[in-house]
Amino acid sequence: MSEIFQGSFTQQEPIPEAGIEAAIAVMRGGRLHRYNTAPGETSETALLEQEFAAYVGAKYCLAVASGGYAMATALRALGVKPGDKVLSNAFTLAPVPGAIAALGAEPVYVGVTEALTIDLDDLEAKIGEASVLLLSHMRGHIVDMDRLMAICDAAGVRVVEDCAHTMGAAWRGRPSGRFGAVGCYSCQTYKHVNSGEGGFLVTDDPEVAARSIMLSGSYMLFERHDAAPSPEAFAQIKYETPNISGRMDNLRAAILRPQLADLDTQCARWTERYQVLEDGLRETPGLQIIPRPEEETVVGSSFQFLLLDWSGDKVGDVLARCGARGVELKWFGGAEPVAFTSRYDSWRYAPTPSLPKTDRILAGIIDMRVPLTFSREDCAQIARIIKAEVSAVYQAS
Fold first, then answer.
1. CA–CA separation, 308 vs 320, rounded Å?
2. pLDDT (tens digit, 9 = 90+) per residue, 52-74?
3. Distance between first and last Cα of the chain
4. What is the topology classification, in CATH, of domain 17-261?
């Protein structure tokens, strides 16, 4: 009888006991707002900002309500205005173009390669169309950051990195989010640290940091941000920057601090599971493994493969057969958006370009979560099921 996987693709590990205890202490104190502190006290949120800045090696850090809010704030802080164009990935999730559209700006989509990273040749061709690139390290795949930054620096284009899927990852040992002007991260449940919702913005630019803090709703309490520039950076900015409240609260910060302390261990566990899946799916007929360059430090919290040039019906058959055996796969090639999967042509608040090379790749991208509730043995079983069902459909075609 065919084996059936019994695990859940949406069940995360529990919050660490230290985080639960810290959250209870915050609730018992009743002071959840980040600026509600006693004299001489540093809030949980300010402590978290210090710790995350130190973790990635940034001068400044701001904790906010979500990764999407972090991206929109970064764009505003860089001066993006309504009607401006912003370069971004055609293969990403909806909050990325959403952050651009939230400002009244217009996404200019750049194609994707078979490595699932932004197409640098297409970027080079379009680089003159905008002054900012919102770069998505989509599903944890990091492009050649040396070449990308050379292209952008030569054109005077500032880079905002969307690191929702790459917290703890690196290129040539340099943390994701530390190449461009701003790095943005997510703390949503399915990311590398879990506070339900939440995010970070990091930068070394004091003006960008000051504007971001004021945008987040600091009022005139910016001196309570320890991972922030000096008060002089706010001298004029405090008068001209609108309050678009999106602060992180002390409850979420308390939950996150122990997770951040253990992040490297957790990333290593994800990467072990990713490797088991990759090894188990090698040499599957019709299935293309995504290459990972030596320069990339991978955090394998999700797994992708390509069924390149398969018909939609056959891809659907694979998904149905795997689903019947307990393996939940998502497809980025569907004509209609489903759950979190959607394509650039679904985002009709922005112009839809013609990207035939990208369409071909999107039509073959299969995606799945790899929660740490899975054991390595679970991942080996999942790989066996996928391999069997892909092989069966391929051989029948």
1. 18
2. 999 999 999 999 999 999 999 99
3. 24
4. Aspartate Aminotransferase; domain 2 (3.40.640)
